[in-house]
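Entry 14. Structure prediction run on the chain below.
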Amino acid sequence: MIGPPTNTRVWIAAGVTDLRRGFTGLSALVESKLEQKPFSGHVFVFRGRRGDLIKVLWYDGDGLCLFAKRLERGRFVWPQAASGTVSLTRAQLSMLLEGIDWRRPERTWEPQLSV
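Output returned:
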C-alpha cells in the first residue's frame, strides 16, 4: 500500500460494515456514522462480517483511494465495540494489515544490556 503522509490519522470503524459498498457508500458512512470528512486525508478502515476482509478509504489529495485486503487464514483483530471509532498509529495500521494483534504487540526477544 502507498503510505499516507506522516501526520495522517487512522480511524477504525468499530463494528461490522457491509463491504459491498464502494467509494460512495463508505464515504457516506464516514460522514454519518464516524462524523468525519472523507476528503480530510485521514485513513478510514472497515471490516466485513466474517472478519477476513477489510477495506481502507483514503483521500490522497487527488482523489479517493479504496484498498481491500482479504486474509487467506485467520481474522483481522477488531475492537469489541459495536459502534464508534478507534484511532490507530501508522505502526498499528501496518500490524493490522499483516493480521497481527495491534492491541498487544509482543517482542520476540528481550533486549539485553551489554557492558
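Helices lie at 23-32, 90-97.
Filed with the rest of this week's runs.
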